[in-house]
Amino acid sequence: MNRSFSFDDDWPRLLDRFGSTEDLDTSARETGALVRRREVRDAATLLRLGLGYGPGGMSLREAAAWAQLQGVAELSDVALLKRLRGAADWFGMLAGQVLAERAGDTGDMGARMLRLVDGTSIRAPGSTAADWRLHMGYDPEKRRFTAFELTDGLEAERLDRFDPLANEIRIADRDFGSRPDCIRALAQGVGDYVVRVNWRGLHWLDLQGNRFDTMGFLRDLGERESGEATVMIGRGWSRSPWTPFRARLIALRLPDDKARSARDRVLKETRRKGRAVKPETLEAAGHVLLLTSLDPLEYPAKRVGALYRLRWQVEIAFKRLKSLLHLDALRAKDPELARAWIFTNLIAAFMIDDMVQHTLDSPP
Predict the structure, then answer these.
(1) Is there a domain that residue 323 lies in?
(2) pTM of the shown model
(3) Average pLDDT in the chain
(4) Do both 168 and 248 map to the same domain?
């Protein structure tokens, strides 16, 4: 076993998080996770087996042996595999249930709730490409995840992936800033957004419908630390009708040392891909470009920049998932078993988040 996630001593209290044993049995039956009770007598036992295999860090053979020694269940590793494969949807539902309990208990910055969105790829053993992609929402005030969706590795990151919440501000990195349809969905919704964009990643227009001169805008900043312009977001060539929508484009000039580092990264990446870098791309690398729907009077450029810089928190949260629960060390190749493994790890992660938050709310 390569981890030390232990739940044996505190199992009754952990089990209370999911309601009564009758509630667990009902939900397990409804999702098809508990069709037969031979070898696994109830849903609580099935959940315990899943947690042993997932965040417990056991192999199927180790989990089966542990279950027998602890008097949890008597079954072979093959029988356990079949049980866990059939319970993947149920484990995902339980992970969602833990998050649903947090509804109405969200953090904010002033009167606005913040949601950082990001994703991470997960590879199956021996794979050289992303087999799964885990999309997450994160509350920087409470320092915990608030939404998740598991897709295959080909699914793109979308700014509008999660249902918008009234008055929220959704914050995302540049990987989310290349799809104008997703940005418009947020712009026309009940909240606002802040997303980093590439200087030529969208079809920029001015208010008259002409091409917006992005490089001219950046050069006009001079030595100023920030500046902004109102732009229209078009879509270029498209089969479907498209009406450009208005947005604020904010440019934040990087300090000289960070600008040099950014340009070095651009050069390194283009060399790796065997491409020639354009001088304009190097020039633009000295700035952070943000697109937002926030009101400029309430959220001037520097405040929008401060909101965006909160993104480091979700990056740290992902690193914590990988370092503590080894979420990047998927042990299963079978798709349904892999989903069960990922979802049980998320259940553990969300419960750990809640325990940490309780400690922060009630310091000694």
Answers:
(1) no
(2) 0.87
(3) 89
(4) yes
